[in-house]
């Protein structure tokens, strides 16, 4: 005998109905949340795409082997809608590019239209290349190479000049041609930004965190910060990036540290890494359009950088971290020729390094100091504990490959929560090895006294380490 379903729920365990309703509620909430998040992602990526479409673009002329570019030019407003500076360019770039893709990034120093709140009072005429950087994205990793503006180059019809003169004389065209000639790197895309745009991006990112062992200043750039981990806003980050007379207050005296053009390059590189960390926060999903819009009126890109392509690259860059970004620094020598200061590449080391940057070499650039020589270390007490720097110096001398005695002292403040291992941008591996040896802390790139390879600023996380307890017990 076949029994038809009765339609009642008498055979179902009494607690199953509420459980089923609960699961339906959960599934409904998850589905609704997914749709909401998906909608938010779509909206913000679309908003970012719209922001990019408003950025001024230069002309593109395809490169074909040794053929010169066609005489195609267009007037482009460097400051967008405000139309403060107008240039004529015929940028020679390849029309279609797949990875690896290399950007020539220019930081222009035009003073026109800059608001007084940025604190830049030296009202120079024209627009020069204050920052020149090559950035290559390659299969989930990145390579960065800064080219000093004082690098000596030979320009047709002008003889020996500084690199930034190529931009001042012949604009983007001459600068791209010069950079390609001296590095052997093909430039695929062009990106130019002025001071205001850079500050606007930092502000849109919510600022950048930089650790200062001591109070720091630069009377020329306007930098003035207290010791500790500081969240720099756009104005402060710009002053840090422009600093060539960087000083730290040590034992009541202002001391110059990394106070030259090469030091400024290292500070600029460290800010790029700090900006990347700020961009990795999850709320950037909602802020991407605002970040692009903050720079849009102060940014020039090549016409090959379509809105879709830029959003794609910007979103992909969020997956980058310090471990898959390689920082390159040219081996350079200082020279004064007929009263003019230049930086010259040291050969053949420079060409060997450039081959690695181009992806042609196999030697690791920025590798740690030879372990047989050891690191030159400075340890600073940043947590206020009794004899912290000396205790850790004693311990590290038996654990880390150090060269000579470890310098010890006090940081400018004792409120460091996390230990910071500060190294030059290209020496990340040194910092990471120190963190691994300590078992705690974080690596940060920035200015380091030329006497040292790394500066360890001890935070509160160093106070109760098992290693330190062992050192105390042995005393």
| Beginning-to-end CA distance, first to last residue | 90 Å
Low-confidence stretches: 1-12, 22-48, 58-92, 364-372
Topology, number of strands: 26
Please state the average pLDDT score. Answer: 74
What is the percent of helical residues? 25-40%
C-alpha Rg, in Å?
Answer: 27 Å
Major sheet: 7 strands, mixed
Shape: globular
**Percent of residues in beta strands:** 15-25%
Instruction: Give the strand order, joined by hyphens, for the main sheet.
Output: 1-18-11-6-7-8-19
Structural class: alpha/beta
In DSSP terms, counting alpha (H) and pi (I) runs of 4 or more, how many helices? Answer: 11
Model description:
The protein is globular and about 65 Å long. The protein has a seven-stranded mixed beta sheet, sandwiched between helices. With 475 residues, the chain is α/β, with parallel strands linked by helices. The longest helix has 38 residues, at 16-53. A hairpin with a 2-residue loop joins strand 20 and strand 21. The chain has eleven helices and 26 strands. Mean pLDDT is 74; it is low at 1-12, 22-48, 58-92 and 364-372. Helices cover 33% and strands 25% of the residues. It has helices spanning 16-53, 163-183, 195-204, 234-242, 261-279, 284-296, 307-317, 349-357, 388-396, 428-438, 466-474, and strands at residues 57-58, 60-61, 74-77, 86-89, 91-92, 101-108, 129-138, 141-146, 152-155, 159-162, 189-193, 208-212, 216-218, 223-225, 228-232, 247-250, 253-256, 299-302, 325-329, 332-337, 340-345, 377-381, 407-410, 420-423, 442-445, 454-458.
